[in-house]
Write a structure and sequence with these properties.
This protein has 3 helices and 7 strands, in the order ββααβββββα. The protein has helices at 13-19, 28-35, 74-120; strands at residues 2-5, 11-12, 38-40, 43-44, 51-52, 57-60, 65-70. The strands form 2 sheets. The chain has a 5-stranded mixed beta sheet with strand order 1-7-6-3-4, with no helix packed on it. It is elongated and about 105 Å long.
Length: 132
């Protein structure tokens, strides 16, 4: 029996299938459930949106796989929180870098545009009264 640790209150069956790499994409869940027998706590289940909680058991008879959904320990919760904090920190850095790059790109475009406009100006000869 394989254990899957759940960090939120629940996880949907479709999301669990994807996170455990039974399917590749979330869209494949419907097709998978139509073609495979899945038992949720001993009862047949084919709804990809079925909410699964800690203590539930999934059995995939065609795959010979059994998954026990477990609650995390205090150490696992702390480690998971550290990972989420680090992910948020990196996302903030990338967002700032993208904003800075966009500002630089806009400045370069503006400078190039100004230079082009300068050289595109037509110089005309001065006109004197009475000349054609």
């Amino acid at each position: 029996m394989n254990n899957y640790t759940i960090y939120d209150e629940f996880i949907t069956l479709g999301k669990l299938l994807k996170e455990t790499a039974i399917i590749e994409t979330g869209g494949a869940a419907k097709h998978f459930l139509e073609n495979n027998d899945v038992f949720y706590n001993g009862n047949y289940e084919n709804r990809r949106g079925k909410k699964l909680y800690a203590g539930d058991v999934l059995e995939f008879s065609g795959l010979g796989l059994k998954i026990n959904i477990v609650a995390p320990t205090a150490d696992e919760i702390a480690e998971h929180q550290k990972e989420r904090d680090e992910e948020a920190r990196v996302k903030a850095i990338v967002k700032k870098m993208n904003a800075d790059n966009k500002k630089t790109e806009n400045r370069q475009k503006s400078a190039t545009n100004n230079k082009e406009q300068y050289f595109k100006r037509k110089t005309s000869k001065p006109k004197f009264p009475g000349s054609k």
